Amino acid sequence: MDNRWRPSVTVAAVIERDGRFLMIEEETHEGLRINNPAGHLDPGETPAEGCAREALEETAWHFRPTQLLGVYISRFQRSTTGEDVTYLRFAFTGELGEEEKGRALDFGIVRTLWMTPEELRATADRHRSPLVLRCIEDYLKGIRYPLESIYSDPSIRGPGWDRDEGS
């Protein structure tokens, strides 16, 4: 039996416009929750690519990550199943592009919301995780790191990569 700990790697977008943050409201195992546009990193993509994809899928807005906001880890137990879950989150900020009006949102996403920091603080009990507000607070503090802080080896793209490049 393999007991190796395997946290779920996720990516999240912190998108601010005119003092409001683009958030999603989604159905979860714990009920209706508020979250940053976020999701799991897919095989073969860099964290920044995954963040751009998730933002589009969950909000219908194009987003281009330009800076790393931080790397976060959290752990909780699902109230419905007792499952022990750990998330390792790469959060990004960047440039908001065009909205694809009429685009269907990901399964489980009820709607998008533009929320002020005060509204987010007041609804903390409805957040998907404590990382939601932490990412917003870090953004407001001005914390930023260059995208180059995350190195993605070409091997993530799958078979055929040059092994000498990854040495």
From TrEMBL:
Top-level division of the source organism's lineage: Bacteria
Obligatory cofactor(s): Mg(2+)
InterPro entries: NUDIX_hydrolase-like_dom_sf, NUDIX_hydrolase_dom, NudJ
Molecular-function GO term, any one: ribonucleoside triphosphate phosphatase activity
SUPFAM superfamilies: Nudix
Keywords tagged on the record: Hydrolase, Magnesium
Enzyme Commission no: 3.6.1.-
Cross-referenced CDD domains: NUDIX_Hydrolase (cd03675)
Domain called Nudix hydrolase: residue spans: 4-137
Enzyme class: hydrolase
Entry similarity comment: Belongs to the Nudix hydrolase family. NudJ subfamily.
Quaternary data: Monomer.
Record's protein name: Phosphatase NudJ
